[in-house]
Amino acid sequence: MNAVKPANYTKAKVQQLQNTLYLAAKVDPKRRFHALYDKVYREDILREAWKRVKANGGSAGTDRITIQYIVQEYGEEQLIQETRELLVNGKYRPSPVRRKDIPKPDGKMRPLGIPTIQDRLVQMATKMVTEPIFEADFRDCSYGFRPKRGAKQAIEKIRRTTKDNPIYWVVDVDIPGYFDNIPHDKLMLLVAQRISDRRILKLIRGWLTAGVMKDDQFYDTEIGSPQGGVISPLLANIYLNYLDTVWEKQFTHLGTLVRYADDFVILCHKREHALEAVNVLKNVFRKLELSMNTQKSKLVNVYNDTEGFDFLGMHHRKLPWRSKGGLAYILRSFPSKKAMKKMRARVKEITAPRSRLPWSLQDMVKELNPVIQGWRGYYGKIDPAVSNRFLQKIDWHIRRRLFIFLRNKHKRKFQRWGPEVSDALTKSGLTTASSWGHCNARGEERRKAV
Fold this sequence. Notes:
The chain has about 450 residues and is an alpha+beta fold. The chain has 16 helices and 11 strands. The radius of gyration is 25 Å and the shape is globular. GO terms for molecular function: RNA-directed DNA polymerase activity. Pfam families: GIIM, RVT_1.
């Protein structure tokens, strides 16, 4: 009688393979892996890959097939088996990605590449097999798009470094259009340092050169890795790992490098070290065929009350802070102006008048709460003593927007901010962005009611 497999059997098998690959790569830093392609089309790998693709969601690619269509009509099992058959027979071919321009806060557009569902499935399976190998090589200074690492850890590294060391200068670096300017040949050389399986290399090059579709026009992609692809963040980390490696081997005496994907800072003690670090970066970028954004990149004195630097949505600056030991300068971190503007814009988007939909207060609160909880989970936990003051402003902005909504919808009942408004917002289940938001909001309501 066959033993009953546990519910997480597929995930456990995948984790076992990843651990084996990671340990093998860690033991031998020069080993090149040559038998990986057959792992990509393993059923447990493809099934786990599909779970992750489905959980990530996203819109359709150039074939206009959505995840909803796969789940409800086409069939998840059919997609997995057909994809596996194409991979086994060597007939899988990447499709062009759909190009969609996303507006940025500065008014410019960010090009986003959306692969087809099948391409996302194969990319995810390939990423799951190859990522552990490169994880063995990635440096501790890299935090972006890596397992068990993220923006909070990167910011915590900055705060811990400035606390334990006399940091006065910060090199704040921006790479313009990084994902769109990665040279294919140099990227493939770095990938080939660890992977010699020609079929895996063919897959990766196929995704890089598949081209894009925009406004029903096809464009070749001779350079860059489309931002939005499942495997693009891994490829981006592989390419900039060259910078991390060079820095840790030769230039740690100049300062501490903290990188999140293509955003990074260097924390330095002396201004001379910071200037030398800039020259080092220019030389490395020249070899990588990248450039430094001279408008956004800057040298910052963190003790200057009017300066500071923005990194991962937070503004960082050393401010005088009174403690038990007296007055001291401590690095404080709070939401940046750009982050505050984006939060207000998101609130306005959700609470904007909807003439076609009979939205109620509960509908808006239901859509607002997950967004607010996300802000509180990120901005409110890094440096609560300072961040909560800024998040309170967002709380007040949200309540003001909801009051305007109530006033417009119920013109007779909600003419002014009074007990009726307070009761309506309380009963709606609205959460707060700041940890002090509930009591402060109620206090403000009582004041206005009086």
